[in-house]
């Protein structure tokens, strides 16, 4: 049997067993037979979760773009690699073949080199979902520069802090972005961010909207002008297996976002393998992942996973509601999409609209549906299954994280069982365990605990950029010798996992991972705010939305004006995605005697779970709890 493609349940069982009994042999077999290497590894794996230190394919040399592009040219050069669907449905879509992709990536790679970018340098990419985004990512990888894609919905301040954290030398952006009926001034945001970023030497600007933009001579360059004279060939940099491929920022419970570092060979092997199997990709499929490349889902299953398999990947610039709520379904029919991968929040938002947006579309090309980013509720699962999959498409509820690089727990469509709201079974190489609050592994099969992993898989993030100690502390210090995910999970009698949600101070709002601390910091910046605490409450479309409990320096302040002003502070510091849905202004926040805010109580109040508040008598100020309950927003 081929270890690479799991075709039936026996394959899954056999591969799973092999991956546990002899993980090095298992992954070496896949790595040997499905990728091209400049030099093979000397050792497959070396790891120690205590340090922590994880190395895969030690000593191997490669370039991931040779695997994503060059090796497909001989047989599949004319095949579409990227199928671009613009925001405006009347603008024609674009097919970029593997041959064209090779040329465009090489040209941009040459431009980067000409602008002084060398192996190991960091390049920040702040672009809309246009082909140049994927091309820029690959161009960085071509020359060994480390890409750091920042989602183009983040504010200037959030962009600046990410640029500074990894001292990026260059920013690649565009004159603007089309989003529904809006044009976002991306270049203006970059210009503002760059007033605080000493490391940036040059800015490459993609022309997309034709908007009027600011220009800084000797720093800003039109990409299309530089490309005119760039050579169409660029030898790939020879990278070490463990050289960083990219940095991607994710929210932390406290402080600065964490720059998760993914390295080359392990990430390549794992994303390719999981793409193939989780989506049961076949040669002529048209795969569409709706996630922005600014998130890990877009990196792994919008770009790298599909291209590593020589697939056609759809890239959509717009939003699901423009020009109306049928846009996704229209695109699926137009391009005959076979696998469609999106987030529960998008499904809920579309399910809320009239079915007449769905009914005119055949959706017959679809074979597999996927979801990712947060737990999917029963209702959304059935709507997706019944109305989009028409009962014929297995739904893969894929659980993973920015930190894991690739999908860890998921059904295999047509091969393993799907169960609504369950991510079900671990993929080969993945060893989940559930831990109790005392730090012990729960051995019973049926259990409820904190989800950890006890063995490294090839695409686990290797560190946090510039802060290895924070990496250790965040993921490896809660439980002895285990990677802690931050999620809670249930396991049924058959070993299927159901992810129940975050057990830390991270809240997933519309599939976006947000830390409460940075939002509280933004709220506290408002001159009238004394203190704040933010919790999540269930929301029909967003999954969770944010509820802020805020004390003011002046109790007579105009609360309606404050609501807007505080949200503007958040928008400026982080981005509109972190705005609060509810703000309750209160005379105090419940605190322990040592002065810590009791978020647990506020969470219960926000979720309207007043019966289970627990003992509040030991608080410093139990009386404020009564006040907060009285005035709570429902
Ligand atoms: C967190 C990671 C991985 C790509 C997108 C999010 C939650 C993710 C699922 C799922 C339940 C899920 C977890 C996880 N999550 N997928 N299928 N079921 N929860 O990446 O922003 O790093 O967020 O998203 O809580 O820890 P991320």
Question: Summarize this, please?
Answer:
The protein is α/β, with parallel strands linked by helices. It is 31% helix and 24% strand. The strands form 8 sheets. An 8-stranded mixed β-sheet has the order 12-11-8-6-7-14-15-23, with helices on both faces. Strands 5-4-17-16-18-19-20 form a 7-stranded mixed β-sheet, sandwiched between helices. A 4-stranded antiparallel β-sheet has the order 21-22-24-25.
Structural class: alpha/beta
Main beta-sheet annotation? 8 strands, mixed
Distance between the termini: 57 Å
Q: Count every beta strand, where a strand is a DSSP E run of 2 or more residues.
A: 30
Q: Give the helix tally.
A: 18
**CATH architecture of the largest domain, please?**
3-Layer(aba) Sandwich
Question: What would the average pLDDT be, to the nearest integer?
Answer: 96
What is bound: which ligands?
Answer: 5'-O-[(S)-butoxy(hydroxy)phosphoryl]adenosine
**Judging from the principal axes of the Cα atoms, what is the shape?**
globular
Percent strand: 15-25%
CATH homologous superfamily of the largest domain - what is it?
A: ANL, N-terminal domain
The largest beta-sheet arranges its strands as 12-11-8-6-7-14-15-23
- What's the CATH first level of the largest domain? Alpha Beta
């Amino acid at each position: 049997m081929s270890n690479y493609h799991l075709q039936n349940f026996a394959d899954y069982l056999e591969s799973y067993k092999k991956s546990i009994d002899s993980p090095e042999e298992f992954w070496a077999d896949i790595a040997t037979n499905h990728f091209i290497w400049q030099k093979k590894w000397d050792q497959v794996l070396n790891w120690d979760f205590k340090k922590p230190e994880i190395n895969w394919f030690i000593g191997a040399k490669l370039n991931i773009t040779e695997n994503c592009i060059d090796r497909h040219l001989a047989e599949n050069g004319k095949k579409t690699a990227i199928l671009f669907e613009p925001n405006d449905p009347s603008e024609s879509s674009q097919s970029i073949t593997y041959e064209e992709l090779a040329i465009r990536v090489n040209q941009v790679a040459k431009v980067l080199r000409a602008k002084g970018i060398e192996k190991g340098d960091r390049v920040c990419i702040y672009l809309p979902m246009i082909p140049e985004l994927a091309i820029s990512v690959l161009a960085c990888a071509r020359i060994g520069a480390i890409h750091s894609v920042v989602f183009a919905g983040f504010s200037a301040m959030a962009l600046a802090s990410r640029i500074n954290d990894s001292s990026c030398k260059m920013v690649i952006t565009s004159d603007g972005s089309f989003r529904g009926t809006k044009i976002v001034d991306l270049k203006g945001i970059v210009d503002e961010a760059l007033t605080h970023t000493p490391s940036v030497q040059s800015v490459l600007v993609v022309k997309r909207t034709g908007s009027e933009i600011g220009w800084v001579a000797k720093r800003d360059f039109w990409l299309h002008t530089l490309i005119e004279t760039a050579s169409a060939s660029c030898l790939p940099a020879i990278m070490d297996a463990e050289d960083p491929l990219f940095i991607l920022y994710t929210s932390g419970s406290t402080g600065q976002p964490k720059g998760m570092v993914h390295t080359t060979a392990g990430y390549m092997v794992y994303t390719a393998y999981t793409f193939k199997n989780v989506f049961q990709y076949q040669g002529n499929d048209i795969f569409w992942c709706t996630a922005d490349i600014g998130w890990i889902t877009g990196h792994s299953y919008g770009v790298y996973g599909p291209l590593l398999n020589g697939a056609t990947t759809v890239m959509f610039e717009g939003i699901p509601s423009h020009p109306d709520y049928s846009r996704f379904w229209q695109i699926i029919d137009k391009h005959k999409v076979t696998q469609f991968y999106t987030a529960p929040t998008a499904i809920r938002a579309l399910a809320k609209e009239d079915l007449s947006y769905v009914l005119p579309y055949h959706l017959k090309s679809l074979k597999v549906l996927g979801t990712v980013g947060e737990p999917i509720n029963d209702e959304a699962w059935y709507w997706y299954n019944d109305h989009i999959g028409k009962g014929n498409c297995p739904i893969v509820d894929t659980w993973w994280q920015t930190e894991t690089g690739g999908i860890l727990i998921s059904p295999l469509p047509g091969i393993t069982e799907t169960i609504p709201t369950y991510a079900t079974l671990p993929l080969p190489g993945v060893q989940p365990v559930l831990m109790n609050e005392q730090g012990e592994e729960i051995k019973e099969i049926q259990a409820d605990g904190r989800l950890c992993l006890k063995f490294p898989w090839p695409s686990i993030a290797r560190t946090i950029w510039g802060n290895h100690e924070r990496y250790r502390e965040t993921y490896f210090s809660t439980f002895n010798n285990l990677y802690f995910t931050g999620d809670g999970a249930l396991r049924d009698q058959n070993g299927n996992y159901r992810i129940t949600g975050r057990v830390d101070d991270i809240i997933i709002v519309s599939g976006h991972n947000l830390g409460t601390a940075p939002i509280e910091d933004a709220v506290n910046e408002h001159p009238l705010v004394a203190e704040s605490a933010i919790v999540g409450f269930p929301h029909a479309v967003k999954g969770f939305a944010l509820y802020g409990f805020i004390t003011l320096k002046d109790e007579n302040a105009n609360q309606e004006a404050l609501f807007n002003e505080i949200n503007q502070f958040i928008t400026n510091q982080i981005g509109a995605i972190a705005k609060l849905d509810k703000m309750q202004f209160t005379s105090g926040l419940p605190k322990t005697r040592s002065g810590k805010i009791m978020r647990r109580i506020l969470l219960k109040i926000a979720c309207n779970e007043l019966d289970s508040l627990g003992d509040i008598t030991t608080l410093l100020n139990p009386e404020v709890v009564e006040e907060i309950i009285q005035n709570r927003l429902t």
